[in-house]
Amino acid sequence: MTDFPSPEDRLKDKEFFRIQRLPPYVFESVNLLKAELRGQGADIIDFGFGNPDMATPKHVIDKLIETVQRPRTTGYSVSRGILGLRQACSRYYKRRFDVDMDPKTEIVATIGSKEGFANLAQAITAPGDVIYAPDPSYPLHAYGFIIAGASIQGIAALTADEYLQGLKEALLAADKPPMAVVVCFPSNPTGFTADLSFYEEIVALAKQYGFYVLSDLAYSEIYFGEAPPSIFQVEGAKDVAVETISLSKTYSMAGWRMGFAVGSKKLIAALARVKSYLDYGAFTPIQVAACAALDGPQDCVEMARAVYRSRRDVMIRSFARAGWDMPKPDASMFVWAPIPEQFAHLGSVEFAKLLMREASVAVSPGVGFGENGEGYVRLGLVENEQRIRQAARNIKQFIADNPAA
Question: Which one, of 252, 257, 260, lies nearest residue 232 by Cα?
């Protein structure tokens, strides 16, 4: 008779396939230290999490309150998103990019752009597919596909030009082209942008080699110079591309979880089919309020942009006086900063922990955004200017106390 392990031992030793593919969470030790220090009464100035601190516009909140009190608005919604919201998204693309989007076949409302991106990965990826993704970049750009069973090839992406050159070199060297290529500009975490010529080349490469392009445009409205373009301003992009956008940062609606995937009818249909099995869409009153955000007055967006610009400038100036020089980002709500030279040997995780312990300033370790993020940290512009100046004073003392760390 064959000896089988006991049910308890079998379950105890069971390893889950997808969990095995995920490395330990890079930010965990930093977050644990933050919680520990706050538990001891420390006042941590927190630039580590990109959570907007500005209020959601009043007319959006008013529309939510009005809608939630109506009969029949609190039941199941529609996984694609209500038609009125998809029409509002279509109007946004026309107004902002002069691009026509069919709300019935080329737009899906998502529960935040993160959900849309992750479910798109599930919809289109087969085990063994190869995906090219920027490095550094938002972790989901790689791990959404890793969870789905794909293999990731990271391409250095500190700037759009570097990423484009790396893509060309990787395509020439590959035995077969990737199934898809991810692009993310304005970039999280670097804040760099891409111009329309970048997207023209990406679309041309996609058609030449036969891959899809997945463009993350979450920071389309947080910019400080020229407005970032959409990939769909390139003729023929709808044949090969999908783009995700989000209301989270534009309207300070991060917790509302409202975004969109737009573009290729084939890819949108695949995403919609997967979503039809997984969810009933966002809460209907939130979708109606999102229409008010997209169609209503946009002075709130201009105000938020001005606040982020001012915070960026205060951080760059005050931190430079403290002894920490940082490049000025073109867009996004982040500053991507090289670790000061005397601390570079520590690596980004240990530097972030030391900075928190000795200066009461929290940042995100760059290595959490990819191997090429090592040597950097990301700072979110989510504290007011007074707190930013206080952080600079703390950092000045921190650097003085550690001349050769």
Answer: 260
CB 37 within 8 A of CB 23: no
Report the amino acid identity of residue 378. Answer: R
- Express each pLDDT in 37-51 by its tens digit: 999 999 999 999 888
As a whole number of angstroms, the distance between CA 400 and CA 220 comes to: 39
**All domains in the chain, ordered by first residue:** 7-55+300-401 (3.90.1150.10), 58-295 (3.40.640.10)
Whether the Cβ atoms of residue 203 and residue 240 lie closer than 8 Å to each other: yes
Taking only the tens place, the pLDDT of each residue in 184-221 is: 999 999 999 999 999 999 999 999 999 999 999 999 99
Distance, CA of 180 to CA of 145 (rounded, Å): 10
Could you tell me if 218 and 188 are in contact, meaning their C-beta atoms sit under 8 angstroms apart? yes
Instruction: Give the residue-averaged pLDDT of 119-135.
Output: 93
**Mean pLDDT score of the chain:** 93
Q: What is the pLDDT of residue 291?
A: 98
Neighbours of 356 (CB within 10 A): 22
- Averaged pLDDT for residues 175-180: 95
Specify whether the backbone of 4 is left (phi greater than 0), alpha (psi in -120 to 50) or beta: beta
